[in-house]
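Tokens for chain A. Residues wanted.
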């Protein structure tokens, strides 16, 4: 039978349990709007059958770890797409031709300048206009390429800053692991610390693709999901760092010498590993994908288009002559060795076997001689070309070709004479950068050749050295608007395809981003339903535990009254 002592003991436990439960509920209400807070449920258990009442055993976090793991995975993908979306939107804006300021409009204006020259080749200002429009087109090419490089540099800077944040988070998680283990061993409430740690893990998921494993002592290990590199092992954090990567095949070709960065992992033994290929999620993973894939692809295509324009315009320009001619002309590009075959001498463009003609003019601009040399770029070096020019019977000492100290071909007319190159059939002029109007190994050093800046009258319009005011070469270059320069596409088709590919990519990213955003929002709602604080429910709990406390107190009061009554009867 239950005695009065047992009744009072049970009532005391009930009051203590109710008061402790009310404190838990009060903490829930106070933290209803606190980020990362997990609702706590008081744990009450009945005493043994021989005893009366309940016992307070602490508080349970209403955390559903499978939902949290799903949230981490979805966040990593969402943040990756978010980073890609931001950067691709910037690229799409750069490629836009809105308001007549885009690259396509600049190319069109350059070809228009040649059309105008073809209609009136005797108008000297139209040759000046060709040079000006070429410079405008080149400026737009460079602006576009440099803007893409700038985006990549900004990404590298952001990655470096993000890695610093990641290291800070890892250290915090390791520190919390230690505190949680210590306090758990002392049977103290560690729910607040676990909330803080969960919030850090979620934040970490926004930066990088991770997974977690919880140990029996409450500590959580964190590791990179792909590759398995451990980032936090119990109370120890392993750091990441960035450093320049000279081996990255995506390093820019802008001549600045700036190198992209790789991400290194330092393990417990001090070994350093390149883990860049394993970072595929989160903001860092998204930025790496844009930096090393999307932007590389766009920059490569822009660079290739610039080279194609240099080549195709140069090949056509080198077939004609201008109104003014050259007293001296030096090739733009240096050969690795004067005697190495041209196609093997490190020059930016290759040539085919062909011939090249040179016209000689007197001091009054009258044509007095022409001669033709034949070359095979797979056999002949620039030293051979110089020898062919100097030894040709038609030269008669009018001009002299030599190799400069920086291994370029220089052609110089003797006093009283000038010359012009024309009818190059194999692309030797383009390979050397000789009388081609446009020069440049790549988009970053794309330029109008200096000799045409100095005298635009040298711009070629005629294939006939005795009739420089003819327009067949001007028409040939203007026809590039409609001609398929790579066998399948015009210049405009190529650029439009680049724009379209970026647009399609952005559209895909937007769709995926929206889908992941919805998934994250849905998961957040599910987590809040299970782990978040509902004020209505908590207020009901307040009433419930208040009534339980009052009931236990009433038992004490009634028991006290019974004791007094019994004592009164005994005393009577």
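Reply:
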């Amino acid at each position: 039978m239950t005695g009065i002592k047992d009744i009072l003991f049970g009532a005391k436990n009930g009051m203590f349990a109710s008061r402790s439960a009310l404190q838990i509920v009060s903490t829930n209400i106070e933290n209803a709007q606190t980020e990362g807070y997990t609702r706590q449920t008081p744990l009450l258990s009945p005493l043994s059958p021989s005893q009366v009442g309940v016992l307070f055993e602490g508080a349970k976090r209403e955390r559903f770890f499978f939902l949290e793991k799903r949230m981490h995975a979805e966040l990593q993908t969402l943040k990756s797409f978010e980073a890609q979306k931001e950067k691709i939107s910037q690229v799409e804006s750069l490629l836009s031709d809105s308001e007549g300021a885009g690259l396509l409009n600049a190319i069109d204006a350059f070809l228009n300048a040649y059309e105008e020259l073809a209609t009136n080749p005797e108008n000297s200002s139209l040759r000046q206009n060709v040079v000006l429009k070429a410079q405008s087109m080149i400026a737009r090419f460079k602006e576009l390429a440099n803007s893409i490089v700038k985006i990549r540099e900004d990404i590298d800077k952001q990655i470096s800053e993000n890695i610093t944040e990641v290291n800070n988070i890892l250290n915090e998680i390791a520190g919390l692991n230690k505190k949680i283990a210590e306090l758990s061993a002392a049977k103290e409430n560690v729910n607040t610390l676990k909330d803080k740690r969960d919030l850090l893990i979620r934040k970490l998921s926004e930066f990088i693709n991770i997974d977690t494993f919880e140990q029996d002592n409450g500590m959580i290990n964190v590791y990179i999901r792909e590759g398995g590199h451990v980032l936090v092992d119990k109370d120890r954090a392993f750091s990441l760092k960035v450093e320049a990567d000279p081996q990255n095949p995506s390093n820019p070709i802008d001549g600045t010498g700036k190198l992209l960065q790789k991400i290194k992992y330092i393990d417990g033994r001090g070994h350093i590993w390149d883990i860049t290929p394993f970072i595929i999620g989160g903001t860092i993973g998204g930025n790496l994908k844009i930096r090393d894939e999307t932007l590389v692809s766009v920059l490569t295509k822009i660079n290739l288009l610039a080279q194609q324009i240099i080549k195709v315009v140069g090949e056509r320009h080198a077939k004609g002559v201008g109104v003014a001619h050259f007293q001296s002309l030096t090739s733009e590009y240096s050969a690795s060795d004067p005697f190495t075959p041209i196609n093997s001498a490190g020059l930016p463009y290759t040539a085919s076997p062909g011939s090249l003609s040179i016209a000689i003019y007197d001091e009054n601009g009258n044509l007095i001689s022409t001669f033709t040399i034949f070359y095979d770029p797979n056999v002949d070096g620039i030293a051979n070309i110089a020898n062919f020019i100097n030894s040709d019977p038609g030269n008669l000492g009018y001009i002299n070709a030599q190799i400069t100290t920086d291994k370029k071909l220089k052609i110089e007319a003797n006093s009283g004479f000038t010359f012009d190159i024309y009818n190059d059939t194999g692309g030797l002029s383009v390979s050397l950068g000789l009388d081609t109007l446009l020069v440049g190994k790549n988009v970053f050093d794309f330029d109008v050749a200096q000799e045409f800046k100095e005298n635009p009258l040298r711009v070629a319009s005629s294939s006939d050295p005795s009739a420089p005011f003819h327009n067949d070469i001007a028409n040939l270059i203007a026809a590039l608007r409609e001609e398929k320069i790579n066998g399948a596409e015009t210049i405009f088709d190529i650029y439009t395809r680049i724009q379209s590919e970026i647009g399609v990519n952005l559209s895909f990213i937007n769709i995926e981003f929206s889908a992941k955003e919805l998934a994250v929002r849905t998961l957040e709602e599910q987590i809040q339903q299970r782990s978040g604080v509902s004020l209505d429910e908590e207020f009901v709990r307040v009433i419930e535990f208040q009534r339980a406390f009052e009931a236990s107190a009433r038992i004490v009061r009634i028991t006290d009254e019974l004791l007094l009554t019994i004592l009164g009867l005994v005393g009577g």
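The two ends are 27 Å apart (CA to CA). Residues 124-185 form the longest helix (62 residues).
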